Amino acid sequence: MRIALDHTSEIGVRAGRLLMGEEGLDLLGVVRRDVKDGDRRIRRIDDLEGFDAVVTDDPDSAILDEAVDAGVPCVLWADTFDRQTDIGDIPVLLGANLVSGIGQSLATRESDVAGPDAQILFAWTEPGKPGRHGEPLTFPEPVGSRWGTRRRMTNRRLDVAATVPDEWAGVIVRSTTDEATRTLGIADLATHLEAIALASGAVLTASGLVSAGAHQPEEMADQYLLSALRIGLDIASFTETS
Q: Mean pLDDT, to the nearest integer, of 42-55?
């Protein structure tokens, strides 16, 4: 794989380090930034020609136009991009981040596994002052117990966001059926989890598993989560039978 990295924050830097651990990586090209590393698989690049994918943590996704011009698939940490951009038949993976990528993929997969009669809770953390009332949630440590705010509810799924004041982040997915309740939980440094989410999208896209057009990680939840687990994602699991 030949992956171009356009980084603007610690998330992108960490994603690059994670990608360097991939056995299938042939080259990590750092876009217009000097590199001080003895590994021959990483070097500065000034254009995207010849790469299998370009990945960016830029919330504005400014490099997307350049990727389209070069005909290179693009992986965005951001959930959206300027819809005036004509991406043509270029594969673009949106939302390669903790909530839209790892969280939504985990919720989608668990919903499919648990079956159509299961009730699903999907909860995640956001930066902010901790709430003092709302939906009670228990994330793995060090996030721990939090109050959450309902964001979306259907007849079988409840989405809840909990604010946390520090550097940690987490996700919970809980499925409840007549037979059992299963809870999946993730908690770690926010930048580390965001980097895993971004790097997983890069590997998926550079491997040719994302088709032309704009897509979300949850559309290929199994492959995306397998990539994240291989890169270093830890998921805690607990099952309680009725």
A: 97
Given this model, what pLDDT does residue 143 score?
96
Closest CA to 236 of 111, 140, 168: 140
| pLDDT on residue 85 | 83
pLDDT, one tens digit per residue, over 135-163 is 999 999 999 999 999 999 999 999 999 99
* ∠ Cα 159 160 161 (to 5°): 135
List the structure tokens of 135.
């939906």
CB 136, CB 173: distance < 8 Å: no
Q: Could you give the C-alpha distances from 118 to 99, 112, 123, 135, 232, in angstroms and in order?
A: 21, 9, 16, 19, 29
SS (H, E, C) the chain: CEEEEECCCHHHHHHHHHHCCCCCCCEEEEECCCCCCCCCCEEEECCCCCCCEEEECCCCCCCHHHHHHHCCCEEECCCCCCCCCCCCCCEEECCCCHHHHHHHHHHHHHHHHHCCCCEEEEEEEEECCCCCCCEEEECCCCCCEEEEEEEEECCCEEEEEEEECCCEEEEEEEEECCCEEEEEEEEEEHHHHHHHHHHHHHHHHHCCCCCCEEECHHHHHHHHHHHHHHHCCCCEEEEEEC
The count of other CB atoms within 10 Å of the CB of residue 26 is 11
pTM over 0.90: yes
* pLDDT tens-place string over residues 187-230: 999 999 999 999 999 999 999 999 999 999 999 999 999 999 99
